[in-house]
Amino acid sequence: MNVLAISGSLRASSSSTAIARAVARVAPPHVTVEIYGELAALPHFSPDLDVEPLPESVSALRAAVARADALVIATPEYAHGMPGSLKNALDWLVSATEPIGKAVLLISASPSGAPHAHAQLSEVLRTMNLRLIDGGAHVFSRAKLDAAGEVVDGALLAAIRAGLAALG
């Protein structure tokens, strides 16, 4: 199974990106994880640009989604919602056929627990006809990362493992 992990944060030392790396680290042997790290390269969505030829970064995103059997989205919460850069990426996928019907494991994490972003993103993913596997909204702080910036929180790692099993 091929999984595309998407971090909803642009920050270099993002906890969401650490969660995406944890997905790759704890994935069972039959699961290959590709981490998508090009949110910042996507232009602002415009229907005027959603025509052939697509912007190169949009074509690359859609190709990565097409290669994947399932998606994992790890996101923080900003101002009681999902980050604008993540919403922008999803907007580029709304009119695409590549994500339709794919399973997506959603894990939201922030110091506040990310309930608002989780609910908002869940609604958007369902609207896009993705099959939502809910990995939950987690209270998560930098303290749950080791010195190398890797996730060490046992409950979150267990949720990731369970979510990956549900994707399969």
Would you write up a description of this structure?
- It is a single chain.
- By secondary structure, this protein is α/β, with parallel strands linked by helices.
- It has a 5-stranded parallel β-sheet, sandwiched between helices.
- The longest helix has 14 residues.
- The radius of gyration is 15 Å and the shape is globular.
- The mean pLDDT is 94.
Label this structure with key terms.
168 residues; alpha/beta; Rossmann fold; 5-stranded parallel beta sheet
Quick structural overview:
The chain is an alpha/beta fold. The chain contains 5 helices and 5 strands. The chain has a single domain, classed as 3-Layer(aba) Sandwich (Rossmann fold), CATH 3.40.50.360.
CATH architecture: 3-Layer(aba) Sandwich
**Unreliable stretches covering 5 or more consecutive residues:** none
The total number of structural domains is 1
**What global shape is seen?**
globular
> What is the name of the CATH topology?
Rossmann fold
Radius of gyration over C-alpha positions, nearest whole angstrom: 15 Å
The biggest beta sheet is recorded as:
5 strands, parallel
Please count the beta strands (DSSP E, at least 2 residues each). 5
Ordered list of secondary-structure elements with their pairings:
Blueprint (H helix, E strand, L loop, with lengths): L1 E6 L7 H12 L5 E5 L19 H12 L2 E6 L8 H11 L8 E8 L4 H13 L3 E9 L14 H14 L1
Parallel strand pairs: 1-2, 1-3, 3-4, 4-5
